[in-house]
Amino acid sequence: MDSLSDLDSLDGADVVVVGGGFGGLSTACYLAGAGADVTLLEKNEQLGGRASRLEVDGFRFDMGPSWYLMPDVFERFFGHFDHEPSEYYDLTRLDPHYRIFFKDGDRVDMVPDLGRNREVFESYEPGAGERFDEYLEKSKVNYEVGMEHFVYEDRTSISDFLDWNVAKNARGLSLVGSMQRHVEKYFDHPKLQQIMQYTLVFLGGAPTNTPALYNLMSHVDFNMGVYYPENGLGGVVDGIVELGEELGVDFRTDAPVTEIEGREGAFVTRTEGAGEFYSDYVVSDADYRHTEMELLDEKKRQYDADYWESRTYAPSAFLLYLGVEGDVDPLEHHTLVLPTDWDEHFERIFDDPAWPEDPAYYLCVPSETDDDVAPDGHSNLFALVPIAAGLEDTPELRSEFRDLVLDDIEENTGVDLRDRIVVEESFCVNDFAERYNSTKGTALGLAHTLRQTALFRPPHRSEAVEGLYFTGSFTTPGIGVPMCLISGQLTAEAMAERTA
């Protein structure tokens, strides 16, 4: 869809959108741009969903997503409304894109210069530089074909995939097999495999359970670049909200929804403390399971408790938000700390859930790029450790793991934080569940396993309630800020298709 004319059938419709994450914000903009009267109800005190912000004593933290990837998706989103991202926020390309500390004392930077990255690969394994080029060429093809024919087009049935045009475009794509097997075809060295697979964290998967198609993320990483938006990912939220207000969306915060009742043309959405809202349609960007199991009558559900229990959920996370005196060199804006063998960490997420003993984790230091996120003479830092969804989360366990993480940072990066921390907050499984009504406290949604990709994810249109739709990370195309933006378009298109 290259223009909003396809959505004209929604002109004049009254729509309530439940949830102000990127999926909800995107859907609201598309619907309002088509002439619908849109009210967005957000449970919490600020918009953005998991892209909330924490402000304490002069420090400002992005609480959730912190990587700005796939700039073309943002350009396409704003372009639908004849705008550009630069009208709402500026971008800075990071150099290096990120730094990796391996726990054997090795350190490597991935940078915008592909030639330098190629040399790094060659230094680990003879011939790997040439295979680096081949891998990126494959990932570029997967990205370009995959985005146009499998991401921006919502294929909801097997017959959609049997279409000749689809089969023709899919020829040569890495549609089956795992990322682990795919990467092993190109690189033997485990560190090179890790560099090509770290982005799976953003998809909520592991190398062994994520389809090889997602090698397209290496094109995103190396060819398209890693950016920092003005005011962080919260600044992107502000930009989309500003666009939504220009389009006429009525945003309501502190409006937790307690019940959705009715059908197309006669919905009532009840909230705690903000009243009742009547509409022709409802779109939920809230956790899909929460919407079905908690907000709908039992007879209006598509799935039962057994279905949701059988799903594979993306990891939760243990997060430490730290305001620190002084600098934190040699950490970069984006820093990864990886065991040389990370299989055990993934096993403790997906196979035998437990708090990791030798964690792989991510450190974000936006104060390396943005002077406004910390007071003078201080650094802004958060640590994110992926952990299994549904883990027991107690103050005692958090305290113990906090000490383990701080010790690990010092041992493997040389940065001692303990005596310099002036602000400290944690966020973990229970917080994801409480703040976002997140199933099992997942930080992301449904993992991108082969059985939970494309048409195997829950649908945008409810099969049980006419006029009820879903958007966000449980639906297609899936997890991540760019994917949730696209889900808003797919949801709006599904609504227009039914109302045309």
Automatic annotation (TrEMBL):
UniProt-listed Pfam families: Amino_oxidase
* Recorded GO MF terms: oxidoreductase activity
Check the record and name the InterPro entries matching this protein.
Amino_oxidase, Carotenoid/retinoid_OxRdtase, FAD/NAD-bd_sf
GO-annotated biological processes = carotenoid biosynthetic process
Looking at the record's lineage, which domain of life comes first? Archaea
Which pathway does UniProt place it in? Carotenoid biosynthesis
Domain (Amine oxidase): residue spans on this chain: 23-495
Q: Which NCBIfam families match?
A: crtI_fam (TIGR02734)
Q: Which named protein is this?
A: Phytoene desaturase
Source species: Halobellus limi
> Which gene underlies this protein?
crtI
